[in-house]
Protein backbone atom coordinates (compact mmCIF):
# COMPACT_ATOMS: atom_id res chain seq x y z
CA UNK A 1 0.00 0.00 0.00
CA UNK A 2 1.24 3.51 -0.84
CA UNK A 3 2.43 5.46 2.18
CA UNK A 4 -0.08 8.33 1.85
CA UNK A 5 -2.97 5.92 1.40
CA UNK A 6 -1.89 3.90 4.45
CA UNK A 7 -1.60 7.05 6.56
CA UNK A 8 -5.04 8.20 5.43
CA UNK A 9 -6.66 4.85 6.29
CA UNK A 10 -4.93 4.64 9.67
CA UNK A 11 -6.07 8.18 10.56
CA UNK A 12 -9.58 6.82 11.09
CA UNK A 13 -8.28 4.74 14.01
CA UNK A 14 -5.32 6.80 15.25
CA UNK A 15 -6.01 10.58 15.44
CA UNK A 16 -2.32 11.47 15.95
CA UNK A 17 -1.16 9.44 12.94
CA UNK A 18 0.29 12.56 11.26
CA UNK A 19 2.97 12.67 13.94
CA UNK A 20 4.08 9.06 13.33
CA UNK A 21 7.19 8.37 11.24
CA UNK A 22 6.98 6.91 7.73
CA UNK A 23 8.71 3.67 8.75
CA UNK A 24 6.23 3.14 11.60
CA UNK A 25 3.31 3.82 9.24
CA UNK A 26 4.56 1.10 6.87
CA UNK A 27 4.80 -1.40 9.72
CA UNK A 28 1.34 -0.48 11.04
CA UNK A 29 -0.17 -0.85 7.57
CA UNK A 30 1.06 -4.44 7.55
CA UNK A 31 0.48 -5.42 11.17
CA UNK A 32 -2.50 -3.35 12.27
CA UNK A 33 -4.74 -2.04 9.53
CA UNK A 34 -6.59 -5.31 8.80
CA UNK A 35 -7.04 -5.94 12.54
CA UNK A 36 -8.32 -2.40 13.11
CA UNK A 37 -10.92 -2.82 10.36
CA UNK A 38 -12.08 -6.09 11.89
CA UNK A 39 -12.46 -4.49 15.32
CA UNK A 40 -14.45 -1.66 13.69
CA UNK A 41 -16.90 -4.21 12.25
CA UNK A 42 -17.39 -5.52 15.78
CA UNK A 43 -17.98 -1.99 17.10
CA UNK A 44 -14.77 -2.03 19.16
CA UNK A 45 -12.67 1.15 19.35
CA UNK A 46 -8.86 1.09 19.20
CA UNK A 47 -7.40 1.78 22.64
CA UNK A 48 -4.34 3.60 23.97
CA UNK A 49 -3.10 4.33 27.49
CA UNK A 50 -2.77 1.84 30.34
CA UNK A 51 -3.60 -1.82 29.78
CA UNK A 52 -6.52 -3.29 31.71
CA UNK A 53 -6.38 -6.56 33.67
CA UNK A 54 -8.47 -8.18 30.94
CA UNK A 55 -5.93 -7.14 28.28
CA UNK A 56 -2.99 -8.32 30.40
CA UNK A 57 -4.72 -11.69 30.86
CA UNK A 58 -5.27 -11.92 27.10
CA UNK A 59 -1.56 -11.28 26.48
CA UNK A 60 -0.66 -14.05 28.94
CA UNK A 61 -3.11 -16.41 27.21
CA UNK A 62 -1.72 -15.58 23.75
CA UNK A 63 1.88 -16.12 24.91
CA UNK A 64 1.08 -19.40 26.68
CA UNK A 65 -0.76 -20.75 23.64
CA UNK A 66 2.09 -19.78 21.29
CA UNK A 67 4.64 -21.48 23.54
CA UNK A 68 2.46 -24.62 23.67
CA UNK A 69 2.19 -24.69 19.86
CA UNK A 70 5.89 -24.14 19.15
CA UNK A 71 7.57 -25.86 22.10
CA UNK A 72 9.69 -22.77 22.88
CA UNK A 73 10.94 -23.17 26.46
CA UNK A 74 9.76 -19.90 27.99
CA UNK A 75 8.20 -16.48 27.43
CA UNK A 76 11.62 -14.94 28.03
CA UNK A 77 13.11 -16.93 25.14
CA UNK A 78 10.19 -15.96 22.93
CA UNK A 79 10.28 -12.22 23.71
CA UNK A 80 14.02 -11.74 24.41
CA UNK A 81 15.45 -14.08 21.80
CA UNK A 82 18.73 -12.17 21.50
CA UNK A 83 19.61 -13.33 25.04
CA UNK A 84 19.81 -16.88 23.68
CA UNK A 85 22.10 -16.72 20.61
CA UNK A 86 22.36 -20.50 20.39
CA UNK A 87 18.56 -20.76 19.86
CA UNK A 88 18.12 -17.57 17.84
CA UNK A 89 17.71 -19.14 14.40
CA UNK A 90 15.29 -21.85 15.58
CA UNK A 91 13.08 -19.46 17.57
CA UNK A 92 12.90 -16.89 14.76
CA UNK A 93 11.92 -19.67 12.31
CA UNK A 94 9.15 -20.87 14.65
CA UNK A 95 7.91 -17.31 15.15
CA UNK A 96 7.66 -16.82 11.38
CA UNK A 97 6.05 -20.22 10.70
CA UNK A 98 3.39 -19.83 13.39
CA UNK A 99 2.63 -16.13 12.77
CA UNK A 100 3.82 -14.74 16.09
CA UNK A 101 2.70 -11.16 15.33
CA UNK A 102 -0.87 -12.22 14.65
CA UNK A 103 -1.03 -14.54 17.65
CA UNK A 104 0.37 -12.03 20.15
CA UNK A 105 -2.17 -9.33 19.20
CA UNK A 106 -5.19 -11.67 19.03
CA UNK A 107 -8.23 -10.17 20.77
CA UNK A 108 -6.52 -6.91 21.78
CA UNK A 109 -7.70 -3.69 20.04
CA UNK A 110 -4.37 -1.83 20.21
CA UNK A 111 -1.43 -1.17 17.87
CA UNK A 112 0.81 -4.27 17.69
CA UNK A 113 3.88 -2.34 18.82
CA UNK A 114 2.22 -1.35 22.12
CA UNK A 115 1.09 -4.94 22.74
CA UNK A 116 4.62 -6.21 22.08
CA UNK A 117 6.19 -3.66 24.47
CA UNK A 118 3.63 -4.53 27.14
CA UNK A 119 4.34 -8.26 26.76
CA UNK A 120 8.09 -7.64 27.09
CA UNK A 121 7.54 -5.62 30.24
CA UNK A 122 5.28 -8.31 31.76
CA UNK A 123 7.58 -11.26 31.03
CA UNK A 124 11.01 -9.75 31.58
CA UNK A 125 12.43 -11.28 34.80
CA UNK A 126 14.91 -8.38 34.92
CA UNK A 127 12.00 -6.00 35.58
CA UNK A 128 11.51 -7.08 39.17
CA UNK A 129 14.89 -6.79 40.86
CA UNK A 130 14.17 -4.08 43.42
CA UNK A 131 16.24 -1.02 44.28
CA UNK A 132 19.58 -0.26 42.62
CA UNK A 133 22.65 -0.64 44.84
CA UNK A 134 25.33 2.05 44.95
CA UNK A 135 27.58 -0.27 42.89
CA UNK A 136 24.89 -0.70 40.22
CA UNK A 137 24.41 3.06 39.92
CA UNK A 138 28.16 3.50 39.37
CA UNK A 139 28.12 0.74 36.74
CA UNK A 140 25.18 2.40 35.00
CA UNK A 141 27.05 5.72 34.77
CA UNK A 142 30.13 3.92 33.43
CA UNK A 143 28.19 1.91 30.81
CA UNK A 144 26.32 5.02 29.66
CA UNK A 145 29.64 6.85 29.19
CA UNK A 146 30.74 3.98 26.94
CA UNK A 147 27.52 3.21 25.06
CA UNK A 148 25.35 6.34 25.25
CA UNK A 149 21.60 5.70 25.09
CA UNK A 150 21.94 2.13 23.82
CA UNK A 151 19.61 0.91 26.59
CA UNK A 152 19.28 -2.55 25.06
CA UNK A 153 23.02 -3.15 25.34
CA UNK A 154 23.26 -1.58 28.80
CA UNK A 155 20.26 -3.58 30.06
CA UNK A 156 21.94 -6.83 28.97
CA UNK A 157 25.18 -5.85 30.73
CA UNK A 158 23.33 -5.04 33.95
CA UNK A 159 20.66 -7.79 33.79
CA UNK A 160 17.95 -5.16 34.14
CA UNK A 161 15.16 -4.25 31.73
CA UNK A 162 15.60 -1.54 29.07
CA UNK A 163 12.96 0.63 30.74
CA UNK A 164 14.48 0.19 34.19
CA UNK A 165 18.01 1.28 33.21
CA UNK A 166 16.72 4.22 31.13
CA UNK A 167 14.53 5.52 33.96
CA UNK A 168 17.21 5.03 36.62
CA UNK A 169 19.81 6.86 34.52
CA UNK A 170 17.32 9.70 34.11
CA UNK A 171 17.35 10.03 37.90
CA UNK A 172 21.11 9.88 38.47
CA UNK A 173 22.59 11.45 35.34
CA UNK A 174 23.24 14.83 36.97
CA UNK A 175 23.30 16.55 40.31
CA UNK A 176 19.55 16.29 40.80
CA UNK A 177 18.16 18.44 43.57
CA UNK A 178 16.10 16.53 46.14
CA UNK A 179 15.31 19.47 48.43
CA UNK A 180 12.49 22.05 48.26
CA UNK A 181 11.89 23.60 44.85
CA UNK A 182 13.34 27.07 44.35
CA UNK A 183 11.32 29.85 42.68
CA UNK A 184 13.61 29.61 39.65
CA UNK A 185 12.99 25.85 39.31
CA UNK A 186 9.23 26.32 39.56
CA UNK A 187 9.36 29.01 36.84
CA UNK A 188 11.43 26.71 34.61
CA UNK A 189 8.92 23.90 35.14
CA UNK A 190 5.94 26.10 34.29
CA UNK A 191 7.68 27.46 31.17
CA UNK A 192 8.58 23.91 30.10
CA UNK A 193 4.99 22.67 30.51
CA UNK A 194 3.69 25.72 28.64
CA UNK A 195 6.13 25.10 25.76
CA UNK A 196 5.18 21.45 25.27
CA UNK A 197 1.45 22.20 25.47
CA UNK A 198 1.74 25.10 22.99
CA UNK A 199 3.75 22.88 20.64
CA UNK A 200 1.03 20.23 20.84
CA UNK A 201 -1.73 22.77 20.24
CA UNK A 202 0.12 24.23 17.23
CA UNK A 203 0.57 20.72 15.78
CA UNK A 204 -3.18 20.15 16.17
CA UNK A 205 -3.83 23.49 14.46
CA UNK A 206 -1.59 22.55 11.53
CA UNK A 207 -3.61 19.38 10.94
CA UNK A 208 -6.99 20.99 11.59
CA UNK A 209 -9.22 22.10 8.66
CA UNK A 210 -10.57 24.93 10.79
CA UNK A 211 -8.99 28.37 10.43
CA UNK A 212 -8.87 29.50 14.05
CA UNK A 213 -6.51 32.40 14.54
CA UNK A 214 -3.48 31.65 16.71
CA UNK A 215 -4.38 34.58 18.99
CA UNK A 216 -7.58 32.75 19.95
CA UNK A 217 -5.85 29.47 20.80
CA UNK A 218 -5.04 30.48 24.37
CA UNK A 219 -8.73 30.00 25.14
CA UNK A 220 -8.45 26.36 24.07
CA UNK A 221 -5.56 25.40 26.34
CA UNK A 222 -8.13 24.04 28.76
CA UNK A 223 -8.05 21.83 31.83
CA UNK A 224 -7.92 18.66 29.75
CA UNK A 225 -4.64 19.72 28.12
CA UNK A 226 -3.13 20.76 31.45
CA UNK A 227 -3.95 17.37 33.00
CA UNK A 228 -3.33 15.02 30.08
CA UNK A 229 -0.22 12.90 29.64
CA UNK A 230 2.79 15.14 29.03
CA UNK A 231 6.30 14.27 27.72
CA UNK A 232 7.99 14.32 31.13
CA UNK A 233 11.48 13.36 29.92
CA UNK A 234 11.39 16.38 27.59
CA UNK A 235 10.20 18.58 30.46
CA UNK A 236 12.94 17.14 32.70
CA UNK A 237 15.57 18.22 30.15
CA UNK A 238 14.16 21.76 30.07
CA UNK A 239 14.12 22.07 33.89
CA UNK A 240 17.62 20.62 34.22
CA UNK A 241 17.85 20.15 37.99
CA UNK A 242 15.05 17.64 38.61
CA UNK A 243 14.28 14.24 37.17
CA UNK A 244 11.00 13.54 35.37
CA UNK A 245 9.06 12.03 38.26
CA UNK A 246 9.80 15.05 40.46
CA UNK A 247 8.61 17.35 37.66
CA UNK A 248 5.39 15.40 37.27
CA UNK A 249 4.66 15.42 41.02
CA UNK A 250 5.43 19.14 41.34
CA UNK A 251 3.26 20.02 38.34
CA UNK A 252 0.31 18.08 39.80
CA UNK A 253 0.79 19.93 43.10
CA UNK A 254 0.85 23.32 41.31
CA UNK A 255 -2.23 22.40 39.30
CA UNK A 256 -4.11 21.23 42.40
CA UNK A 257 -3.29 24.45 44.28
CA UNK A 258 -4.44 26.57 41.32
CA UNK A 259 -7.69 24.64 40.91
CA UNK A 260 -8.54 24.60 44.62
CA UNK A 261 -7.26 28.16 45.23
CA UNK A 262 -5.01 26.75 47.95
CA UNK A 263 -7.85 25.28 50.02
CA UNK A 264 -7.12 22.08 51.99
CA UNK A 265 -9.86 19.84 50.61
CA UNK A 266 -8.62 16.60 52.12
CA UNK A 267 -8.35 17.50 55.82
CA UNK A 268 -10.68 17.39 58.80
CA UNK A 269 -14.37 16.74 58.16
CA UNK A 270 -13.91 17.61 54.46
CA UNK A 271 -11.28 14.90 54.21
CA UNK A 272 -13.52 12.31 55.88
CA UNK A 273 -16.40 13.21 53.56
CA UNK A 274 -14.11 13.01 50.52
CA UNK A 275 -12.94 9.51 51.49
CA UNK A 276 -16.53 8.38 52.05
CA UNK A 277 -17.63 9.79 48.68
CA UNK A 278 -14.68 8.21 46.88
CA UNK A 279 -15.26 4.73 48.34
CA UNK A 280 -18.99 4.87 47.55
CA UNK A 281 -18.46 6.00 43.96
CA UNK A 282 -15.80 3.35 43.30
CA UNK A 283 -18.07 0.66 44.77
CA UNK A 284 -20.98 1.78 42.57
CA UNK A 285 -18.84 1.45 39.42
CA UNK A 286 -18.56 -2.37 39.86
CA UNK A 287 -15.39 -2.57 37.75
CA UNK A 288 -12.79 -5.33 37.97
CA UNK A 289 -9.68 -3.28 37.25
CA UNK A 290 -8.35 0.18 38.13
CA UNK A 291 -7.64 0.81 34.43
CA UNK A 292 -11.38 0.67 33.75
CA UNK A 293 -12.06 3.61 36.11
CA UNK A 294 -12.62 7.01 34.53
CA UNK A 295 -10.83 9.01 37.22
CA UNK A 296 -11.88 12.31 35.61
CA UNK A 297 -15.47 11.55 36.57
CA UNK A 298 -14.45 11.02 40.21
CA UNK A 299 -12.76 14.40 40.67
CA UNK A 300 -15.91 15.97 42.10
CA UNK A 301 -15.86 13.48 45.00
CA UNK A 302 -13.09 15.65 46.48
CA UNK A 303 -13.57 19.00 44.74
CA UNK A 304 -12.11 20.82 41.77
CA UNK A 305 -8.91 18.77 41.52
CA UNK A 306 -6.96 17.02 38.73
CA UNK A 307 -7.37 13.30 38.08
CA UNK A 308 -3.89 12.51 39.43
CA UNK A 309 -4.87 13.97 42.81
CA UNK A 310 -7.81 11.56 43.11
CA UNK A 311 -5.63 8.61 42.08
CA UNK A 312 -3.01 9.55 44.67
CA UNK A 313 -5.62 9.80 47.44
CA UNK A 314 -7.06 6.42 46.50
CA UNK A 315 -3.58 4.87 46.54
CA UNK A 316 -2.93 6.23 50.06
CA UNK A 317 -6.35 5.01 51.18
CA UNK A 318 -5.79 1.41 50.09
CA UNK A 319 -2.21 1.30 51.42
CA UNK A 320 -3.19 2.62 54.85
CA UNK A 321 -6.52 0.78 55.25
CA UNK A 322 -6.43 -2.53 53.37
CA UNK A 323 -4.31 -5.32 54.89
CA UNK A 324 -2.25 -7.33 52.35
CA UNK A 325 -3.56 -5.06 49.59
CA UNK A 326 -0.83 -6.16 47.17
CA UNK A 327 -2.29 -9.66 47.11
CA UNK A 328 -5.85 -8.48 46.48
CA UNK A 329 -7.56 -7.67 43.18
CA UNK A 330 -8.91 -4.17 42.59
CA UNK A 331 -12.51 -5.31 43.20
CA UNK A 332 -11.48 -7.06 46.47
CA UNK A 333 -9.81 -3.83 47.65
CA UNK A 334 -12.95 -1.81 46.89
CA UNK A 335 -15.19 -4.39 48.61
CA UNK A 336 -12.99 -4.27 51.73
CA UNK A 337 -13.03 -0.46 51.82
CA UNK A 338 -16.81 -0.40 51.37
CA UNK A 339 -17.65 -3.09 53.94
CA UNK A 340 -14.96 -2.49 56.56
CA UNK A 341 -13.60 1.05 56.27
CA UNK A 342 -16.67 3.00 55.16
CA UNK A 343 -18.69 2.37 58.38
CA UNK A 344 -15.67 3.55 60.46
CA UNK A 345 -15.32 6.74 58.43
CA UNK A 346 -19.06 7.48 58.63
CA UNK A 347 -18.99 7.01 62.41
CA UNK A 348 -15.96 9.34 62.70
CA UNK A 349 -17.72 11.95 60.57
Automatic annotation (TrEMBL):
Domain HTH myb-type: 124-161
One GO CC term on file: nucleolus
A single GO molecular function term of this UniProt record: chromatin binding
Gene3D superfamilies: Homeodomain-like
Domain of life, source organism: Eukaryota
Alphabetical GO biological process terms: termination of RNA polymerase I transcription
Location of the Myb-like domain: 124-172, 173-255
Classification via Pfam families: Myb_DNA-bind_6
PANTHER family from the UniProt entry: TRANSCRIPTION TERMINATION FACTOR 1 (PTHR46760:SF1)
The protein's name: TTF1 factor
Record organism: Rhynochetos jubatus (kagu)
Amino acid sequence: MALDAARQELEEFIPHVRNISDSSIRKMAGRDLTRFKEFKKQGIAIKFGRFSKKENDQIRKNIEEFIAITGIDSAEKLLFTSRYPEDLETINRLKAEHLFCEKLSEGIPRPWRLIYYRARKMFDPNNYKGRYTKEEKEKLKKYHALHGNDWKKISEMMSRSNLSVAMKYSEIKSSVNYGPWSKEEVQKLMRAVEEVIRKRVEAEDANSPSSLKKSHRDLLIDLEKLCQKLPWTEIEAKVGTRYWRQCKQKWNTILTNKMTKGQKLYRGTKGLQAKINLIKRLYELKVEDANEVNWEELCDTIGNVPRSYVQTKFYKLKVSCVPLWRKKTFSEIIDYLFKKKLPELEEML
